[in-house]
Amino acid sequence: MENFEFFNSTRILFGRATENKIGEILKKDRIKKVVFVYGKESIKKIGLYERVVKALKDNGIEFVEHSGVKPNPVLSHTREGIEKAKAEKVDAILAVGGGSVIDEGKTIAVGAKSKKDVWRFFKRQDEIKGALPVYTILTLAATGTEMNENAVITNEETKEKLSISSRYIYPRVSILNPELTFSVSATYQAYAAVDAIAHVIEYYFSGSYCPMIQNRFIEGLIKTVMDTTESILKEPYNYNARAEFMWAATLALNGLAKLGIKGGSFPNHMIAHALGGIYDLAHGACLSIVIPAWMKWYKDKNPAQFERFAREIFNKETADEGVSELKAWFKKIGAPVSLKDAGIEESHISKIVENAYNIAEVWQMNDVYTKEVLTEIIKNANY
Amino acid sequence: MENFEFFNSTRILFGRATENKIGEILKKDRIKKVVFVYGKESIKKIGLYERVVKALKDNGIEFVEHSGVKPNPVLSHTREGIEKAKAEKVDAILAVGGGSVIDEGKTIAVGAKSKKDVWRFFKRQDEIKGALPVYTILTLAATGTEMNENAVITNEETKEKLSISSRYIYPRVSILNPELTFSVSATYQAYAAVDAIAHVIEYYFSGSYCPMIQNRFIEGLIKTVMDTTESILKEPYNYNARAEFMWAATLALNGLAKLGIKGGSFPNHMIAHALGGIYDLAHGACLSIVIPAWMKWYKDKNPAQFERFAREIFNKETADEGVSELKAWFKKIGAPVSLKDAGIEESHISKIVENAYNIAEVWQMNDVYTKEVLTEIIKNANY
């Protein structure tokens, strides 16, 4: 088992009606004014917007709205949020939405405390030295951002999709009410399931040693994600299925699942970000295209773990069966598993490779993920 | 899934040589002087005492020693520690040892910040309003206290073994180096395994609803505890086995394993504390006597979960088989499974019942755990 450090400073409030506490929580933390970040109409449709506004007003919390966050949140809109936060001298960010809204909220929190252009932190040209406190109310369980130190933003000018990671952007409090995810569509539930699975299998497969305690933890999360997704697709209002899925997605990327694993990395996310930077494709859809293609390329490099995966998750014997079962399951729940499924032409492969290589350089993974390797992997997804 | 709140403020440093960082850590946190709490000679035998002293001196941290903590830490010795902490005006507690040392350290941290007698907090006559920060270096993985908000102390005059629970006593930093547990004896490893299993099965069995995500998490921890204990008993210097056991024991009681479970309680610990308050028996030994006896009494109240346990852990079909397999495993690793094994005579049963009922009253569990019920359970352990 590798040495590790673990600290997660996010407080989770989980369950029914917890979002109504947001006003009291902010007041107790002596927050006077927030930027209220959200997407489009969905939080209004489910009545959440009104409940949040009421909770804020009842507790005397002022707020400036910053709406219109896109599914792949973009830099220009984030910069507008930073300007608002600075101009209005807010004490905190309140992000109400899915992973995109929270990631934009985290980035606004960083930008608001810095005189530097926020993109410099994504390019790793400067170190993050602070952030406003971030509070979240989650409406789409998938990315795990509600309990971690990461945020992903797309620079729409340069087509770069990059991430930041800093202890300052653990949300101070995240509110997880599974009922708020009842309205998540079947398509987005499928993408969310792919994303949660992707988060735990990256280290599980790419690490050169994975402790048994982590194998079991990760396999338990994968089984939970799969079972609950099937239940949710049949019964969207199944509270326990929504709740278990929500908590599984949080645990999948709150830092616990990678502890002690030797030498893991995030290759599937790297390539998926390259796709997401170019095409207006949901992150989960990018991942369901990339994962089977990456697995096909990687499986012989860690055969014992791929066989274990096949056995524990699908009750199959061979690595190949494990890979094809996972791909079939992605397809079954409605996620794309090829470039063709997403309407991307073969002629685009070199462009995707270029973009993926660019991220590989920033992430310092270009020693393994050369353009040749990336081409091979992305070609695996071309059918 | 039940509503829950989760927050764990302990930072974990895990791995080889991490104890050498204690001086830097304290210095960075601006700690000037600590009470250095430990047990007897064992930390000197493994050279840990010297390394800690060096790390403190190298970083200019003053310290007052408070040694001689007993395996079931007692109130009188804890009060002496509190007096030292007050007289010497320390800023923090450094506890180096197993669960007993850390629990006494946490209690000193509470007592040092209060004008009230510390036992009042255990009797739940007063609320804990603060504590000195606690830093720990763990030398026996078992109780989980290194990453939770609990402490257990025995009042040797009244024979009461009671606990406190407060957010102020999460250790600020806990250092877990599995190598420091190489010298843990086979007997204590067995007790530690029983304790870690006990922590996760209390809610798993006694809750009226256990989410699948928790079933899988808990079963993964139990399997890890069992597999690694068997490896450790054969090869005490197996680093990965010690490491996985250590992390499993921490996860077993850091708050995660109970989230979302409906209506669980800690009956086995309640009765084990009654035994531990009267007899000089290790906590794990008390638990290995109590658990099979409690299971025998309880299994028909939650048959599906007991059948699941038998199937998932032992690949058996019936609840009875699960119970007897667990008992056989406790026996196999060298833990006592009856009052007779511990040399306790049948005539003592009523005394144990009285003591257990006393705790049941403090824990407000005496509605279910009447003297009749406690007698039935403890009689199950009498053979």
From TrEMBL, chains A, B:
Pfam families: ADH_Fe_C, Fe-ADH. Its EC number is 1.1.1.-. The keyword Oxidoreductase applies. Residues 10-178 form the Alcohol dehydrogenase iron-type/glycerol dehydrogenase GldA domain. It comes from Thermodesulfovibrio autotrophicus. This is Iron-containing alcohol dehydrogenase. Keywords: Oxidoreductase. GO terms for molecular function: alcohol dehydrogenase (NADP+) activity; butanol dehydrogenase (NAD+) activity; metal ion binding; methylglyoxal reductase (NADPH) (acetol producing) activity. Residues 190-381 form the Fe-containing alcohol dehydrogenase-like C-terminal domain. Belongs to the iron-containing alcohol dehydrogenase family. It is an enzyme of class 1 (oxidoreductase). The keyword Oxidoreductase applies. One of its GO terms (cellular component) is cytosol.
